[in-house]
Amino acid sequence: MSNRYKEIREQAYLANMQLPQLNLVIFTFGNVSVADRNERIFAIKPSGVPYEALSPEHMVVVDFEGKWVDGKLKPSSDTLTHAVLYREWNEINSIVHTHSTYATAWAQSLRSIPIYGTTHADHAFCDIPCCHPMDDQKVKGNYELETGFQIIDCFNQLKLDYREVQMILVGQHAPFTWGESAEKAVYNSAVLEELAKMAHLTEQIQPDAIPLKEALIKKHYERKHGPDKYYGQ
Asked: Which of these, 196, 230, 193, 216, lies nearest to 121 by C-alpha position?
């Protein structure tokens, strides 16, 4: 195994190990990848290996076509989904896929997560989208590859910018998040789970809950992300 990929393997390993620590995965559910855009490669969790058994050396390196580059194990079964997103969206450097409980429940329900409060607006100015289930022919074909295009197509249809909304629910499946770094992609995954949980509890408390009003959406989103943002140091 080449030492050439030591750094990217270490980054991917540390990011993957955050998922169970944040209660976003159990057993072998989910994966994180980290890309090196100069080399057009990414390191990703190996398929079916429990998190407690992982080490940096177990991370598998593949190229942006999803083809094996280095490593002794098989890469995640979701590798081609990651590869599509890296190829199509040039400003992401890490992708997270989990089956976290609340976000996955919304995906299984085929519902976007409504924007009910300012916590949501701090991270996205719209509902967290849930894309339609894949048609049968695509499921029978190259399923993981098509999942990547399913995500891309959803964003295109909704006219969303992947740099502004960094999370999605894949209908009847589970969530994906991404970011400019592994730290941000994992952060987005944890935030998505909390937003899903808050929305669920909101609807339990008040089934007729109304969406957050536009003025508050604009204020909370722009104070963190707008041209005149003032949140943080």
From this structure: 216
First-to-last alpha carbon distance for the chain, in angstroms, is 42
**pLDDT of 124:** 97
Residue ranges per structural domain of the chain = 3-225
**Segments in the chain forming alpha helices (H):** 6-21, 79-88, 101-108, 118-121, 136-140, 143-158, 182-205, 214-225
* Of residues 91, 159, 95, the one with CA closest to residue 126: 159
pLDDT band at 82 (very low <50, low <70, confident <90, very high): very high
Between CA 47 and CA 53 the distance in angstroms is: 12
Which positions are annotated as active-site residues?
A: 122, 231
Domain made up of 3-225: CATH architecture:
3-Layer(aba) Sandwich (3.40)
Q: What was the pLDDT predicted at 3?
A: 84
Cβ-Cβ contacts under 8 Å for 76 (sequence gap 6 or more): 31, 33, 44, 45, 46, 47, 60, 82
